[in-house]
Automatic annotation (TrEMBL):
Membrane-spanning segments: none
Name of the protein in question: SDR family oxidoreductase
Pfam families the record matches: adh_short_C2
Domain Ketoreductase: 1-192
InterPro entries (alphabetical): KR_dom (IPR057326), NAD(P)-bd_dom_sf (IPR036291), Sc_DH/Rdtase_CS (IPR020904), SDR_fam (IPR002347)
Species lineage: Bacteria, Bacillati, Actinomycetota, Actinomycetes, Pseudonocardiales
Family the UniProt entry places it in: Belongs to the short-chain dehydrogenases/reductases (SDR) family.
One of the record's GO molecular function terms: oxidoreductase activity
Record keywords, A-Z: Oxidoreductase
Length: 240
């Protein structure tokens, strides 16, 4: 019943890790560079009575993912819930077409889409063997609007949406869904929090969307056994 959360040590990933631990899942907090943050997340979970361990992996490299998954199985057991939250961006004005180079496209595609493929592929046997194997991919509401931190970012997250639906078919009866957070103030907004909160104020519900809001949606998808191949937007109505 282990839950594996990539990018699980910070921001949205930490909130998801803690929420899944609250459901009783041992949590594998997978990180790439944020070792200290991942350990703090583990400590928060264990202090609350849960079970968690941190594992390092470069999710853009399948061999690294395989090694980490083997360590997770040995220490915590087979993976029954997978949350592909690892990702990133590069801030490039949408109108600056020359700055959106092939290299940026390739880097963000590997980080935001191919990484989820690697982890789902490596964990497929565990997920299929589970009573209710479940995958949740963390995408972006920018796919719907076409507006985001850069063109390559929007395109890479759109690829993740396609992967979600393809995997829902390829891994069935494993359930595969996706959440699309809108603007959520995380470390990516460091130094620009006021700007972010001004943009977030456009939400029609009259409040900022939080990491806990995203985690609650993930919990809903994990526990609702009839939902697969779907996308849930969590943005307070920003994209309506």
């Amino acid at each position: 019943m282990t839950a594996l959360v990539t990018g699980g040590g910070t921001g949205i990933g930490r909130a998801i890790s803690e929420a899944l631990a609250g459901l009783g899942h041992p949590v594998a907090v997978v990180y790439s560079r944020s070792a200290d943050d991942a350990q703090r997340t583990v400590e928060a979970i264990t202090s609350a009575g849960g079970r968690a361990e941190a594992f390092r992996a470069d999710v853009t490299d399948e061999a690294s993912v395989r090694a980490a998954a083997a360590a997770v199985r040995e220490s915590l057991g087979s993976v029954t819930v997978l949350v592909n939250n690892a990702g990133g961006t590069e801030h490039i004005p949408l109108a600056d077409l020359d700055a959106a180079t092939d290299e940026v496209f390739e880097r963000l595609f590997r980080l935001n889409a191919l990484s989820a493929w690697h982890v789902a592929k490596v964990c497929a046997d565990d997920l299929r063997a589970a009573d209710d194997g479940c995958v949740v991919n963390v995408g972006s509401a920018s796919v719907a609007s076409g507006r985001g931190s850069s063109v390559p970012y929007v395109v890479s997250k759109a690829a993740l949406s396609g992967l979600t639906r393809a995997l829902a078919n390829a891994l069935a009866p494993v359930r595969v869904n996706e959440v699309w957070p809108g603007l959520v103030i995380t470390r990516w907004w460091a130094g620009k929090e006021e700007q972010g909160r001004a943009l977030a104020s456009n939400a029609i519900v009259g409040r900022e969307t939080t990491v806990e809001d995203v985690a609650a949606a993930v919990v809903g998808l994990v526990t609702s056994r009839a939902i697969t191949g779907q996308t849930i937007t969590i943005d307070g109505g920003q994209t309506l």
